[in-house]
Amino acid sequence: MAEAAHESVKRQERAQQVALFRYQVICPALDPALSTRARGRIVRAIAARDHQGPFGGTHRYSRDTLDRWIRRYRADGFEGLKPSLRQAGSRIDVNVLELAVALKKENPDRTAAQVARILAASSGWSPSESTLLRLFHRRQLMLDAPGTGEVFSRYEADAPNQRWVGDALHGPKIGGRKVYLFAFLDDHTRLLVGYRFGFAEDTVRLAAALKPALSSRGIPGCCYVDNGAAYVDSWLLRACAEGVRWSV
Q1: Strand pairing of 223-224 and 164-174?
Q2: Average pLDDT of the residues in 49-78
Q3: CA distance 180 to 171
Q4: I need a labelling partner for 3 at 20 to 30 A (CA). Which of 45, 131, 153, 201 fits?
């Protein structure tokens, strides 16, 4: 009984990790101000590049998959992005297949047998070697994948509150302690909408800078940040995914 309960908790945690990952992937295409054509361009660009998977490795997703995630998020919010919590059985767990693909892409020299052993060790179950081989052939992972390049251009939000840009800067020492500045700028107006100095670069100080900005300026269309630890904290990502507003 205890083992089954532990396995259930593990599956729920993995489902939330997958949902957060999917939200991060489709987030650029969720802006309601986008036209159908503009959203299509963004989704095609997302489908054309590699993504760091939630459990390691890199892999790509088709436009059909991305469109399905977007529809689910619009219909059911963050919960709609969670995969099924069904037990491994006659139907193969999609998350395990995604992990298998990520492991193969991470090291193309891995055989199906090696991937199967890794899956069995990490999740307690693995598809058969023949199933993995069919999967790798279907995803064209048995061949050398040609390199791809990305071209980026400068951009600016078209209106105030459409996009905020946030970052943390290392400041001087005060009283022998190093300080950090969290700041958010409106991308269109360059207005400093929120800021906060603190003695630590963490989510608590980030929230202290962002909360008054939201109270005085409203909710932006999106926030553009880097991959700093405070910005990729699972609590903050889930708050963004679920559209939670901070209370004053």
Answers
A1: parallel
A2: 85
A3: 5
A4: 131
189 neighbors 160 (Cβ within 8 angstroms) = yes
Backbone angles phi and psi of 196, in degrees to 5: -165, 130
Please report the pLDDT score of residue 100 as a whole number: 87
Q: Is the pTM above the cut of 0.85?
A: no
Tell whether the torsion through CA atoms of 82, 87, 93 and 99 is positive or negative.
positive
The β-bridge partners of 58 are 52
Q: Kindly tell me if the per-residue pLDDT of 42 is higher than 90.
A: yes
Domain enclosing residue 100, as ranges: 90-144
- What's the CA gap between 81 and 70, in Å, rounded? 9
Q: Give the number of domains in the chain.
A: 3
Say yes or no: 67 and 124 in one domain.
no
In order of 152, 171, 214, 240, the CA distances from 200 in angstroms are 33, 11, 21, 22
